[in-house]
Amino acid sequence: MPSIPVQTMAKKAKPILLGTALITIALALSACTNSNTATNTTNNTSSATPSTTHQITSNATSNTPTNTTSTSSSNTSITNDLNAIDSLNTSLNNDVQSSQSALNDQATNLNE
Amino acid sequence: MTKKTLLSTMLLATLTLAPIVSFAAVTNTTIAPKTNADAKTAAQQKTIDSLKTRATTEIDRRVTALTALVTKISAMKRLTTTQKASFAAEVQSNITALNALKTKIVADTDLATLKTDVKSIVDSYRIYLLFMPKIHILSAVDVGSQIITKFSDVITKLQTRITAITTEKTTLQAKLDDMKAKITDATTQFSQASRAVIALDPTGYPGNKTQLQAAHQLIVAANADLKTARQDAKDIMAALK
User: Which of B135, B180, B189, B209 has its CA 20 to 30 A from that of A99?
Assistant: First the structure.
């Protein structure tokens, strides 16, 4: 079997390498396309999910302040009522005290 | 006689005569001792002055208190216009009578008459003795009713809050139920106190004194119930926040 010179072999190998490179590039490109598709899919999915999530979050955000505001408003309203009660109670205490003093005064006067 | 001798004689004479002159002056001032009648008159005048001072002080105190009562009556929200006008007119009439009595007492010169007038401050002016506690009790009922109205609002608001919670619901509902019970008790007591005194008349005094005292005890009890209800509300609010 005649030996093939190395140089000849190199010459023959060039088209093979080129073909391999082309196939690799083609595969790479294909992979890229698939990857893009996947990305798009993911994007689509993620764009849909965040949209829903945002909506929920948005709803949750709007509900929470409403509840907090409602609770806070209720607290303020009750506190105002209780403050008014405290103020009136001072007046009531004065009347009870004055009634007691008047009855004591009666006793003093009757003893005169 | 030398100048020195003359000076000595004059000094001696001054020292000797001075006590005599002084004694004569004292003798002159005590020369007319008081009779028993004069002493009696002076003592009587002292009694009259003392009685007048005491009487005018007592009348002024009553007039001041009654004037404040007129203001209190006009500020009451739960009395009818007719009741307010009636009470105010009676109190005002008493103020006028007391001022007239004060003028008479100041002008009194006879001790017996003065004593009778002073006694009449108490005996004839029962309106003061009756109206002072009566109006204060009615005022307490008036203010108490306003407090109960406010508490009703608070109970409604707290009930809404307790219904919406999940934790401590039973405990807080029990507090609110206690609060409701106390408000109901206070409402009954204020109502009974008002009914007990509203028709009391000065002519019935002192026979109606026991009713005044009973009404006073009712407002004391109602006030205690309101304090407990206030504490319940405070506890509930502390748990809800």
Answer: B180
